[in-house]
Amino acid sequence: MLGVDELDKILQEKCTNTFRKGYVNIGGFTFPKRYEELKDQFDNLEVHEEDVWICSFPKTGTTWTQEMVWMIVNNLDFEEGQVNLGHRSPFLELSVIFDYRDMLKNNASFNPPPFLEDSIGFVKSQKSPVCVKTHFPYHLLPKEIQNGSKKPKMIYVARDPKDTCISYFHHSKLLECFRGDFNEFCELFLAGKVNFGPYWKHVLPYWDKRNSPDLLFLKFEDMKKDLPKVIRQVAEFLERPLSEEQVEILTKHLSFESMKQNPAVNYELVCNLNKQFNLTEGGGAFMRSGTVGGYKGMMSEEMIKRFDDWIEENLKGTDYVI
Asked: In angstroms, rounded to a whole number, what is the distance separating the alpha carbons of residues 95 and 98?
């Protein structure tokens, strides 16, 4: 187990670059430094109750859920669905993850799409209903949601933290400039030192609100086990019922192979942009395996035991089951 100073050193030396200057802890959570400058805008964002919020810890099935929700809200409009998901279902704090200001200032040929260059401005410019994606923990959502003055429909998706860690490691190598090894990433994950961590402090407050009429709590494993059932559940929650034929069509569209090959949802645009300008060094694909239990092929028995002990400790006194 590494100490705080050692973990901070890993973050600073192995996960900073042109678009990631460093990290801060705000409200007990880890964020890129850029969050400090934009926090007031996020806190005071005007919320529209017609919108749908897709909330999650990173790499828990967010993109899968986004595409499902957008398709249901938009009556399975596959033609419009060819537009990049970042445009159709904007990621509220994406400009915190990728702070491209230096690139924009110093490279005239660097031209990211609006939803990537100024994510909060892009969200504000959209006409409701918008399917808004966020990785914010509950107590850092806009004030209008926290104080109950606005009650948009919210869908939270969670996943086994061991599989989440594996997926987040590959994602961080591919997109977020992480240059450390897997064991170092596990140490960061367990210590809550990855972006939007700690994991349990993120998941459990949403879980505690699962009986709210405005929040639907999903699990990645249930989606893998019976996707048509989850599609019906989401459609009912959104009050946009689907026919059995529509459920079947959407199930095929949301299959892992279909999603992986769909450039509108597989983050190909961002991956290619970062590679083109040498902003990241990692290879691979945004949608890698999409399996349940994949951690068994990558984690050592010792690390699995550490995760299991950590899970047991954090779930004491709760009724959450992975």
From this structure: 5
Q: Could you report the per-residue pLDDT of 158-178, keeping only the tens digit for each?
A: 999 999 999 999 999 988 889
- The residues with which 56 forms a beta bridge, in sequence order, are 157
* 202 part of the active site: no
CA pair distance 53, 58, nearest whole angstrom: 15
From the list 135, 170, 171, 202, the catalytic residue is: 135
* Residue 213 CA from chain centroid, whole number: 23
| Residue 259 parent element (H or E) | helix 256-260
- Burial pattern 73-85, b for ≥16 Cβ within 10 A else e, equals bbeeeeeebeebb
Check residue 162 and give its pLDDT. 97
| pTM of this structure | 0.95
Name the residue among 78, 17, 55 with its Cα closest to residue 281: 17
Residue 98 to residue 19: CA distance in whole angstroms = 5
Q: What is the pLDDT of residues 25-80, one digit of tens each?
A: 999 999 999 999 999 999 999 999 999 999 999 999 999 999 999 999 999 999 99
Phi, psi dihedrals of residue 20, rounded to the nearest 5°: -140, 95
